[in-house]
């Protein structure tokens, strides 16, 4: 069962999410008002990190969204931002810090639980709120990839093993591998690290390099 933590400084929001998660067979292991409480609970109970943390964009304890998202990702959880999504800059900040995506507080509660399930499966969360947060923001979107790097990233992020990517582009495997390494370095340089293949898929979707996730019988997102 997917283990979920809810972090929001509005108790009524947490209670509503707890009830919805129970109906969706999601196990809420923690519900609290800030990230420090969650990490203290983790340390005290020696519990495993939650699979998914649903995090309010702005908490009342003075912490920043970057601090909170980075702490949770570093602790081993995927993070979904649950927000009114009226502050695009803060949403972009959360995504740059490593959040998987955002679900608006105006969305039906079923959309929130569906998003949790999607992220728990290791799939990217691609929704309207996410797209509107990054659209047109070149400072966020531009990692200045070369045409070849974009081609390699497009195929690799779509699920193809790196050897197949090299064959399709007519380049050596070592060249394709070097391109992916450079892509990762460039994303780190603009504050958007992509250490895993799922992260690269997310970056490719954010930047319009890959419009939507593609599947390939020869290799999944974890291959190559």
Automatic annotation (TrEMBL):
The modification 4-aspartylphosphate is found at residue 56. InterPro entries: CheY-like_superfamily (IPR011006), NreC/VraR/RcsB-like_REC (IPR058245), Sig_transdc_resp-reg_C-effctor (IPR016032), Sig_transdc_resp-reg_receiver (IPR001789), Tscrpt_reg_LuxR_C (IPR000792), WalR-like (IPR039420), WH-like_DNA-bd_sf (IPR036388). Keywords: DNA-binding, Phosphoprotein. It comes from the Bacteria. CDD domains: REC_NarL-like (cd17535). Residues 3-120 form the Response regulatory domain. SUPFAM superfamilies: C-terminal effector domain of the bipartite response regulators, CheY-like. This is Response regulator transcription factor.
């Amino acid at each position: 069962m997917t283990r979920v933590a809810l972090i929001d400084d509005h108790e009524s929001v947490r209670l509503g999410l707890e009830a919805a998660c129970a109906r969706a067979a999601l196990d809420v292991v923690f519900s609290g008002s800030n990230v420090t409480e969650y990490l203290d609970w983790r340390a005290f109970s020696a519990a495993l990190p939650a699979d998914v943390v649903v995090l309010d964009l702005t908490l009342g304890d003075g912490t920043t969204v970057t601090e909170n998202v980075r702490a949770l990702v570093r602790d081993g959880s995927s993070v979904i931002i649950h927000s009114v999504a009226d502050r695009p800059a803060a949403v972009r900040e959360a995504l740059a810090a490593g959040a998987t995506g955002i679900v608006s507080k105006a969305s039906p509660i079923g959309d929130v639980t569906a998003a949790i399930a999607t992220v728990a499966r290791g799939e990217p969360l691609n929704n309207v709120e996410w797209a509107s947060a990054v659209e047109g923001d070149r400072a966020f979107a531009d990692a200045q990839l070369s045409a070849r790097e974009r081609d390699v990233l497009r195929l690799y992020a779509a699920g193809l093993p790196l050897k197949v990517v090299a064959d399709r582009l007519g380049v050596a495997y070592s060249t394709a591998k070097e391109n992916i390494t450079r892509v990762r370095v460039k994303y780190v340089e603009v504050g958007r690290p992509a250490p895993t293949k799922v992260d690269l898929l997310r970056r490719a979707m954010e930047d319009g390099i890959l419009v939507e996730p593609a599947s390939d019988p020869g290799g999944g997102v974890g291959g190559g």
